[in-house]
Amino acid sequence: MDRLDKKILRLLQADSTLAVADVAKRVGLSTTPCWRRIQKLEEEGVIKRRVAILDPDKVNTRVTVFVSIRTNSHSTEWLKRFSEVVITFPEVIEFYRMSGDVDYLLRVVVPDIAAYDAFYKRLIEKIEIRDVSSAFAMERIKSTTELPLDYMVFDKETRDA
Amino acid sequence: MDRLDKKILRLLQADSTLAVADVAKRVGLSTTPCWRRIQKLEEEGVIKRRVAILDPDKVNTRVTVFVSIRTNSHSTEWLKRFSEVVITFPEVIEFYRMSGDVDYLLRVVVPDIAAYDAFYKRLIEKIEIRDVSSAFAMERIKSTTELPLDYMVFDKETRDA
DNA sequence: GGTGAAATTAGGCTAAC
DNA sequence: GTTAGCCTAATTTCACC
């Protein structure tokens, strides 16, 4: 990977509908090598997928809730089942195991607070959870799928190929 | 919007490289009306964009940090500048104004803890921030761009067209 | 609303240099 | 890396249900 790949990724992260010829032009390459580079980036898994991004308002998922969960005194068994159950909820957009105070953090999207309550009830119906705290987002100031490319490593081989 | 639109959105949220003819087949439609529906969904802004999703590992942004910020005693002036500054950092992937205990929540991606420290220094160089607390993700259990479509409202008009 | 056919054009992909 | 061309598939338009 080099600077041209980086430029290509920057463009496709912002808009994957760009034609190869357009990408090539903006990157300062002709279409064939640009096409080959994109193919390679896909083969290597640098580009994982291309997806459509929907407007949360338009599909009635205006409200984002961050759910913090503490699980100190649970069994390994429980932890396994916990993850499995949580993953199945489509409202759970992100789910991390954390260090520090909170053990797990969820980002959940729902239409409104009532729907969150319903989601929450469905969740604790499936697994007992001891310590949960929910924080509601009032305003989405920034939300992007574009990763920063400033940390990319340029080498013969991809960092962990 | 109806059930067919929902099916189309479900497919394109997962993979936007699908040919219109493929989408049509899976949805049980012929290509022309399927194509028209997709066009309409784009015009209406239900589909906001199509983007390439990169592998965080491959672009060296393995580490996710959630940054909680409390700003109780700051001026309106400061709040405005705060938002403007934070947005400019490409490491900040998500940025919400919250209700409750924490005032702002950031999701930041960086290569490692050292890079987070550097990011943090660059941030507080640009704006003074009083109460910051950082929580590191140990494991990404789920992370998706697919919004749940179960809450979609089917009407003559889009809910808030 | 829907189907199916056909024409046009854009763009992915290949080949040859 | 380039230029040129093939050829699939997207995008229209059509007639019709």
Automatic annotation (TrEMBL), chains A, B:
InterPro entries: ArsR-like_HTH (IPR011991), AsnC-type_HTH_dom (IPR000485), Dimeric_a/b-barrel (IPR011008), Tscrpt_reg_AsnC-like (IPR019888), Tscrpt_reg_AsnC/Lrp_C (IPR019887), Tscrpt_reg_HTH_AsnC-type_CS (IPR019885), WH-like_DNA-bd_sf (IPR036388), WH_DNA-bd_sf (IPR036390). The keyword Membrane does not apply. Pfam families: AsnC_trans_reg, HTH_24. Residues 1-62 form the HTH asnC-type domain. Keywords: DNA-binding, Transcription, Transcription regulation. This is Lrp/AsnC family transcriptional regulator. It comes from Fulvimarina uroteuthidis. The lineage of its organism: Bacteria, Pseudomonadati, Pseudomonadota, Alphaproteobacteria, Hyphomicrobiales.
